[in-house]
Amino acid sequence: MKTIEQIAAELQGYDPQALSADRVNEFLARLVEPVTTTEDVSVFDALDRALAADVVSPISVPPHDNSAMDGFAFDSALLQSGQPLKLRVAGTAFAGKAWSGTLQADQCLKIMTGAIMPAALDTVVPLEFVKVEGDVVEIPPGVVKAGDNRRLLGEDLMAGQPALRKGQTLGPAALGLIASLGLPKVTVFRRIKVAYFSTGDEILTLGEPIREGAVFDSNRYTVFGLLKRMGVDVVDMGVVRDEPELLEAAFRSAAQQADAIITSGGVSMGEADHTKAMMKQLGDVAFWRIAMRPGRPMAVGRITEDGKSSLLFGLPGNPVAVMVTFLAFVRPALQRLMGGTVTAPVLLQAKCLEQLRKKPGRTEYQRGIVSKGADGSLTVRITGNQGSGVLSSMVEANGLIVLHHSQGNVAVGDAVDVMMFSGVV
Fold it and tell me: I want to staple 254 with a disulfide (CB 3.0 to 4.6 A). Which of 22, 157, 195, 325 is the partner?
């Protein structure tokens, strides 16, 4: 396990007082070591878990050639260019069992979606394309070609081939795929546990009486929601006052029971509280000033208690900065810790409807509202006040406008990158 100092030495141009957003994720990729413990869980319990081994298909899917339509199956060799084809119906094939009759050369088979295709037949014409008189079907010229509407054996998956890869995070479609292979259980990495707490004498817990100069804690609830969306086990440790004994007890308790610890507040330059001092005392921690807005101050490292090491993420205290730093840095780090493959967020391009001021040399995340323009293209406007304490603007937004490190001012009509919240926030 590499120390903070060793990791920093590997990064060319590493400067903890002016760290770019890209360099932060590069650092975290070296710091985070994925969990290795695995367990077998039922398909119902596998959502959002990371696969610990490839899922190899024990069967072919589909297991036989079958019809993709309700219609009539026939031998395409009977088709003649420009000529209608008349065939007698020999019977009906239903999904769930093979049709056991025999076909003559001038016959077809009425067939339902999913029904097995008899070996001599290779094409299905949909019901709505034909004329039926008694037991005779007339297929007009040009409505189908050879092989139409036929699903081939193993078209989706072949037996013995990987259906899902190690490290893949299982979504709803993956659960259905596993079940389609007849597998009741799947091997995944154990669920990680994340402890979090807010720090500061000015923070009120819900239910406490209001007092002058104090604010109710919102960060714990925001972080809770972000963690639950990731499918991790969460440990809420409440609000910890800015007293050395209380902070030490909280950090030690969190390190004993969790794989990662998240705090908010107490990491800014020159702050008078004891959070930073306690982080230094108990762990191997780096304190950064990141070239970004919002969310400049951040602490990252490890805290070890009774031989057990836990990742530490000390986030800023402002509510919007907490969310932005979580999405930009903590979320991918936790994905890696969970054993999952880390995927960069998909950035959509949208036309900016207003001018944005931006200095090169830092990454900015502005709250935006993305919508579809009259021509079908995406447009985006900011939510108004972009202050890092304006949490209502995050509620109003449906994505973050990402203004990259070297980017400057944005003019009306310029294309900008947008990180959408859907499925993440």
Answer: 195
- What confidence score (pLDDT) does residue 220 get? 94
Question: Which domain does 404 fall in, by range?
Answer: 347-420
Is the omega angle on the peptide bond into residue 294 within 30 degrees of 0, that is, cis? yes
pLDDT tens digit sequence for 141-153: 999 999 999 999 9
* Residue 23 φ then ψ, to 5°: -70, -30
Same domain, 183 and 197: no
Centre a 10 Å sphere on the Cβ of residue 392 and count the other Cβ atoms it contains.
13
CA distance 265 to 271: 10
342, part of any domain: no
Report the chain (425 residues): mean pLDDT per 10 consecutive residues. Answer: 93 92 95 97 96 97 96 97 96 95 94 96 97 96 96 95 96 96 97 95 84 88 94 95 93 97 84 80 95 94 93 94 95 96 90 95 96 92 84 92 96 96 77
CA–CA separation, 20 and 269 (whole Å): 17
Q: Are residues 55 and 163 in the same domain?
A: yes
Tell me: do 198 and 250 sit in the same domain.
yes
- Domain co-membership, 118 together with 81: yes
Q: Which of 300, 350, 352 is nearest to 325 (CA)?
A: 300
Q: Are 318 and 389 in contact (CB under 8 A)?
A: yes
Residue-wise DSSP of 188-236: EEPPPEEEEEEE-TTEEPTTSPP-TT-EE--HHHHHHHHHHHHT-EEEE
Q: Which of 280, 284, 256, 265 is nearest to 195 (CA)?
A: 256
Q: 């932005």: which residue's tokens?
A: 324
DSSP state letters, 82-143: T--EEEEEEEEE-TTS-------TTEEEEE-TTPBPPTT--EEEEGGG-EEETTEEEE-TTS
Read off the DSSP letter of residue 43. Answer: G
Distance (Å) of CA 146 to CA 10, 54, 126: 60, 36, 13
The predicted model scores a pTM of: 0.87
Query: Quick one: pLDDT at residue 271?
Result: 53
